[in-house]
């Protein structure tokens, strides 16, 4: 009896393991299919036009065979940079407050609010931007309100949870010996944060910023709703702007032939961007580990 | 007991009826202890007996734990450290601390030692160089690390890291050095180097050391206090306490009957 039941048990175990391996394999296959599909549809036109021409030419007239996404590339970079400019400092300061200063109860409350912020669908952010921020800009700052600034404000809010959560975890993961060691030398709490805790959490904070950047570049819906989407290089923060993602979603409905292929090629560019950002994250985490933190 | 004070300046620190509470739990019950200048005082006892808690009251590091209350008083020279006038930052500069786990910062050897002087406002490079060399020499680390000042401290061995932490403490020129089981993570050779260092340091500093290792207490200390359940059961010259303990519980502990 004993060996048989043991055997049965073992057979069940191995089926479970096979099932888990199958799920993991499926996931890899899905990613592979998506990657192959995007590249198969986008790469030919990218090569036909020439990578440099496609990226930096600002003439986008897809119906007369002129495919340059330079305007949209600049648009994506401008909106993303502008959102990072305010969301990164605010996010890191908030993370420091939550990890180091706030009493545990307040920190938990803030954490719950951040989770909530992360869970709101992007179309809702876009809507809030449209009815609150856009009119505010129109009435007080000028232009018609649909602008780089509106996009930067909304995107910044959307990437705050990423920046706050990851930076806070990085700061909390700093061994408490560092803080105590610093305080025991007569350093103030602030000196300890600035000179020991933040440098020790640096790789995690860089990760937070890069992942936030990835989110900002890829975000579409909210950006489409508040930035005006004119395919021109913005003259200032109050000008309208069109990003790469906006361009894809706005034109996908009616595009055909080379035009559709050019939108896929834009997808390839975004894909490569995200891969590069992920590599940066991995390198930064490795550099952190090599320095003997954690 | 002949730990009675003969002249006043011999006593560097002194606790009077010191009580510590974590929320409702009383961790220390009325501790009275005199810590003699330029001597090594060892605190021994089983885990959770309050010896580390007592050590951490001496530089007010206990305050970092949420919900801690302290009654009674601790004096450094004649200054009450639990008083509104006491500057905690200044206190911690005078009463340095070395932890169980070597807590080198994630920076170079040089930057670790220069950290304390820097936060206390020394910017002059030459002066910093001088302090770093002096501190590393005093911690018996200059021979090994003098040529590798700019390598990351995390690459050093555990024993070297612990001596680096001591050098870092020495760099702010303290009067008292607290050590919380400083050798518990070290191999025997590193431990004996650390013990030699402690013997040298007591010429210039007052040292209080918490240890689980009774042989270590017997080797390095001049005075020993035995803690049990938050009480100071016995405090005496180390030789006296180990050879001829006055209290039955002390005798049971040092002969290994519990703990």
Walk me through the topology.
The complex is a heterodimer of chains A (294) and B (259).
Chain A: H1 2-49, H2 51-56, E1 60-61, E2 66-67, H3 70-101, H4 104-119, H5 122-140, H6 148-172, H7 176-183, H8 189-200, H9 202-218, H10 221-226, H11 244-251, H12 257-290
Antiparallel strand pairs in A: 1-2
Helix pairs in contact in A: 1-12, 3-6, 3-9, 4-6, 5-6, 6-9, 7-8, 9-12, 11-12
Chain B: E1 11-22, E2 25-36, E3 40-44, H1 51-57, E4 68-76, E5 79-80, H2 88-94, E6 95-98, H3 109-119, H4 125-138, H5 142-145, H6 158-170, E7 176-180, H7 188-201, E8 206-210, H8 214-220, E9 223-228, E10 231-237, H9 238-243, H10 248-254
Parallel strand pairs in B: 3-8, 3-9, 6-7, 7-8
Antiparallel strand pairs in B: 1-2, 1-4, 4-5, 9-10
Q: Can you walk through the features of this model?
A:
The complex is a heterodimer of chains A (294) and B (259). Chain A is an all-alpha fold. Helix content of chain A is 79%, strand content 1%. Chain A folds into two domains: 48 residues; 221 residues, MetI-like (MetI-like fold), CATH 1.10.3720.10. In chain A, helix 4 packs across helix 6, helix 5 packs across helix 6 and helix 9 runs antiparallel to helix 12. The longest helix of chain A has 48 residues. Chain B has one domain: P-loop containing nucleotide triphosphate hydrolases (Rossmann fold), CATH 3.40.50. In chain B, strands 6-7-8-3-9-10 form a six-stranded mixed β-sheet, sandwiched between helices. A four-stranded antiparallel β-sheet of chain B has the order 2-1-4-5, covered by helices on one side. In chain B, helix 3 runs parallel beside helix 6. Chains A and B meet through helix 7 and helix 8 of A and helix 2, helix 3 and helix 6 of B.
The number of distinct structural domains of chain A comes to 2
Radius of gyration of chain B, in Å, reads 18 Å
Structural class of chain A: mainly alpha
Question: How would the global form of chain B be characterised?
Answer: globular
CATH superfamily of the largest domain in chain A, by name, is MetI-like
Order of helices and strands of chain A: HHEEHHHHHHHHHH
Q: Please, how many helices of chain A? A: 12
With strands numbered from the N-terminus, the spatial order across the biggest sheet of chain A is 1-2
Strand order of the largest sheet of chain B: 6-7-8-3-9-10
* Helix content percent band of chain B: 25-40%
DSSP summary, beta strand count of chain B: 10
**Biggest pleated-sheet summary of chain A:** 2 strands, antiparallel
Name the largest protein-protein interface in this structure. Answer: A-B, 22 and 30 residues
Q: Main sheet of chain B?
A: 6 strands, mixed
Cα end-to-end separation of chain B: 25 Å
CATH superfamily of chain B: P-loop containing nucleotide triphosphate hydrolases
| Distance between the ends of chain A | 49 Å
- Give the total of domains of chain B: 1
**What is the subunit organization of this protein?**
heterodimer
């Amino acid at each position: 009896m004993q060996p048989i039941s043991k055997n049965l048990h073992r057979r069940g175990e191995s089926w479970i393991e096979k099932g888990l391996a199958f799920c993991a394999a499926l996931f890899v296959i899905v990613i592979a299919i998506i990657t192959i599909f995007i590249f198969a549809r986008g790469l030919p036109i990218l090569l036909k036009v020439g990578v440099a021409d496609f990226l930096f030419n600002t003439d986008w007239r897809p119906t007369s065979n002129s495919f340059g996404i330079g305007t949209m590339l600049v648009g994506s970079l401008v909106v993303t940079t502008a959102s990072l400019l305010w969301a990164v400092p605010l996010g890191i300061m908030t993370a420091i407050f939550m990890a180091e200063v706030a009493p545990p109860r307040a920190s938990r409350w803030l954490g719950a609010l951040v989770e909530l912020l992360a869970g709101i669908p992007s179309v809702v952010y876009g809507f809030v931007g449209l009815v609150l921020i856009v009119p505010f800009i129109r009435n007080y700052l000028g232009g018609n309100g649909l602008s780089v600034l509106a996009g930067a404000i909304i995107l910044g809010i959307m990437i705050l949870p990423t920046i706050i959560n990851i930076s806070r975890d990085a700061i909390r993961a700093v061994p408490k010996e560092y803080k105590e060691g610093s305080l025991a030398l007569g350093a103030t709490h602030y000196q300890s944060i600035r000179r020991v805790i933040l440098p020790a959490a640096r790789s995690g904070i860089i990760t937070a910023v890069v992942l936030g950047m990835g989110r900002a570049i890829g975000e579409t819906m909210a950006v489409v709703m508040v930035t005006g989407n004119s395919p021109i290089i913005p003259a200032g923060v109050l000008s309208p702007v069109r990003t790469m993602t906006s361009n894809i979603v706005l034109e996908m409905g009616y595009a055909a032939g080379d035009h559709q292929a050019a939108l896929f090629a834009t997808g390839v560019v975004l894909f490569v961007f995200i891969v590069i950002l992920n590599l940066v994250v991995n390198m930064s985490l490795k550099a952190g580990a090599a320095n003997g933190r954690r | 007991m002949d730990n009675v004070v003969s002249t006043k300046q011999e006593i560097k620190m002194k606790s009077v009826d010191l009580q510590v509470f974590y929320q409702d739990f009383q961790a220390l019950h009325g501790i009275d202890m005199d810590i003699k200048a330029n001597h090594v005082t060892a605190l021994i006892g089983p885990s959770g007996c309050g010896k580390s808690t007592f050590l951490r009251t001496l530089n007010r590091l206990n305050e970092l734990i949420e919900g801690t209350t302290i009654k009674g008083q601790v004096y450094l020279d004649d200054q009450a450290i639990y008083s509104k006038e006491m500057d905690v930052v200044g206190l911690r500069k005078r009463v340095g601390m070395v932890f169980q786990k070597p807590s080198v910062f994630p920076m170079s050897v040089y930057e670790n030692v220069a950290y304390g002087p820097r936060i206390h406002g020394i910017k002059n490079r030459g002066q910093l160089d001088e302090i770093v060399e002096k501190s590393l020499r005093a911690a018996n680390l200059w021979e090994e690390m003098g040529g590798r000042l700019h390598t990351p401290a995390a690459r050093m061995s555990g024993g070297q890291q612990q001596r680096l932490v001591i050098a870092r403490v020495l760099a702010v020129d303290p009067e008292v050095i607290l050590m919380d089981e400083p050798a518990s993570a070290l191999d025997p050779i590193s431990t004996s180097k650390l013990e030699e260092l402690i013997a040298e340091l007591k010429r210039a500093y007052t040292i209080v050391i918490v240890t689980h290792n009774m042989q270590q207490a017997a080797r390095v200390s001049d005075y020993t206090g035995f803690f049990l359940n938050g009480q100071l059961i016995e405090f005496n010259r180390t030789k006296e306490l180990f050879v001829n303990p006055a209290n039955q519980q002390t005798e049971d502990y040092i002969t290994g009957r519990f703990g």
